[in-house]
Amino acid sequence: MSKLKSNCKLGVLSRPDGSVLFSQDETTVIAGVYGPVESKANKALVEKACVEAHFRPKSGLPGVKDRLNESIIRNVCEAAIASTLYPRTSVVVVIQEMQNNGQLISCALNAACLTLLDSGIDMKCMFAAVTCFIDKEENLLFTPPLNEDEVKAMFMFVFESVEKNIIASHTSGSFSVEQYKDALSLCKEECTNIFDFFKRSLTIK
């Protein structure tokens, strides 16, 4: 199976402390990070930074699925940021969906990691997310079939850069234990390519 094609442009927005236009295959998002900035009194944490995530769909108001994406993004960023270095502050990650071809949440997470790195915020590790699918013919794919009814299962894994351990995962559909293991192995292999892409992108900058 061919690897995912990633592209990015850092520093595309002027107001955030870090920003990126990021795409994986045909899925594209813009991400920005603000902070660390002084927290509002009701959000300030004494021992660490408060991490917020805002996910904006391509059109319309955020729905239930967008709120789930926000929760995943916030939890992953919170695990990766060295938040104890920034007590009583807020770090706000904003993701804007541009185009979705099946890799939306993993694309958003990878954009979040790149924009955090672009901002210069101290992090405990990088993180990379990969999504794959099983179609009705039992094929394991990075790009889902055009017809959603042809998707039997979806797997999304997030790995940290130090030991390549899973820090988050999300699955849906029907699959066997062996198919789960195959998907995990495929995504773990692909995450190495994404980490290499991150390093190249920051070096070029």
In CATH, the homologous superfamily goes by the name: GHMP Kinase, N-terminal domain
CATH topology: Ribosomal Protein S5, domain 2
The structure class reads alpha+beta
Helix content: 25-40%
Written overview of the protein:
This protein has 205 residues and is an alpha+beta fold. It has one domain (6-204): GHMP Kinase, N-terminal domain (Ribosomal Protein S5, domain 2), CATH 3.30.230.70. It is built from 3 helices and 9 strands. The chain has a 5-stranded mixed β-sheet with strand order 1-2-3-5-4, covered by helices on one side. It has a 4-stranded antiparallel β-sheet with strand order 7-6-8-9, with helices on both faces. Strand 4, helix 1 (64-80) and strand 5 form a beta-alpha-beta unit. The mean pLDDT is 90.
In short:
The chain is an alpha+beta fold and 205 residues long.
Question: What distinguishing features does this structure have?
Answer:
30% helix; alpha+beta; Ribosomal Protein S5, domain 2; 205 residues; 4-stranded antiparallel beta sheet
Question: What's the topology here?
Answer:
Elements: E1 6-10, E2 18-24, E3 27-38, E4 50-56, H1 64-80, E5 89-99, H2 104-119, E6 127-135, E7 140-141, E8 151-160, E9 166-173, H3 177-204
Parallel strand pairs: 4-5
Antiparallel strand pairs: 1-2, 2-3, 3-5, 6-7, 6-8, 8-9
Helix pairs in contact: 1-2
